[in-house]
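Project outcomes to date are best conveyed with an example. Our students and postdoctoral researchers have been running inverse folding experiments weekly, and each run begins with a structure described purely in tokens. The record below, which covers 220 residues, was selected by the lab manager from last quarter's runs and is presented without edits.
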């Protein structure tokens, strides 16, 4: 099953390269296919390097959630319909280039966060502290408290800027912001429980990295 998923992602990447090499309106969709397939494959690969004990089929994040799959499908539908009715909208190369740069930045930041965290990183929020669990504050964690979420946030929006999907740009931004706001609050409650004052001090010094999200609020 791992090989099937890896081959599927490799096939999608290859198709993306072929589309990218052309001059048609689907060229930017080829960029998107390469970005999407590389993102999911590298999620599995970096997890295998960092934390093989937590490795599973779910590490590809292909079945992240129903909402995630619905969002992807909606972006494909929007791109296709707008290509048919507003073809000039899909030929704004400078805008797609900006989106591609956002995608590259976001994915690189996320993978840097995963590699920096090492075995501390897990796709699932942990409710119990293991003996090897440590608070990581160096590298990209010195810039943002949640660099993997920051990376994913800008990667997801970047995919829609790349496709010149105005509706999905707004939809992805709102949905991603809400998801990460709730996820960060949930995770920070656990981290405070794990590390106590050490995490609270870190929280005071380093921002979340996401706009208008400050994390869990503590009542004095």
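After processing, the design step wrote out the following sequence:
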């Amino acid at each position: 099953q791992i090989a099937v998923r890896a081959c599927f992602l490799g096939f999608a990447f290859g198709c993306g390269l072929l589309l990218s090499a052309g001059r048609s309106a689907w060229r930017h969709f080829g960029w998107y296919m390469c970005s999407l397939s590389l993102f999911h494959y590298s999620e599995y690969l970096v997890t295998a390097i960092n934390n093989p004990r937590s490795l599973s089929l779910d590490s590809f994040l292909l079945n992240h959630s129903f909402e995630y799959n619905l969002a992807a499908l909606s972006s494909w539908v929007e791109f296709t319909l707008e290509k048919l009715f507003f073809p000039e909208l899909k030929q704004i190369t400078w805008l797609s280039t900006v989106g591609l740069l956002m995608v590259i930045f976001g994915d690189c930041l996320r993978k840097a966060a995963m590699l920096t965290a090492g075995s501390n990183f897990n796709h699932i929020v942990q409710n119990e502290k293991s003996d090897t669990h440590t608070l990581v504050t160096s590298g990209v964690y010195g810039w943002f408290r949640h660099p993997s979420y920051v990376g994913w946030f800008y990667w997801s929006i970047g995919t829609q800027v790349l496709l010149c999907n105005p509706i999905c740009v707004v939809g992805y931004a709102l949905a991603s912001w809400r998801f990460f706001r709730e996820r960060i609050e949930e995770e920070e409650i656990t981290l405070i429980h794990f590390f106590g004052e050490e995490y609270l001090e870190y929280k005071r010094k380093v921002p979340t990295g996401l706009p208008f999200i400050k994390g869990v609020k503590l009542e004095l």
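The helical segments are 2-21, 27-50, 66-85, 93-117, 147-162, 166-195, 197-205. The chain has seven helices and no strands. The training component of this project remains on track.
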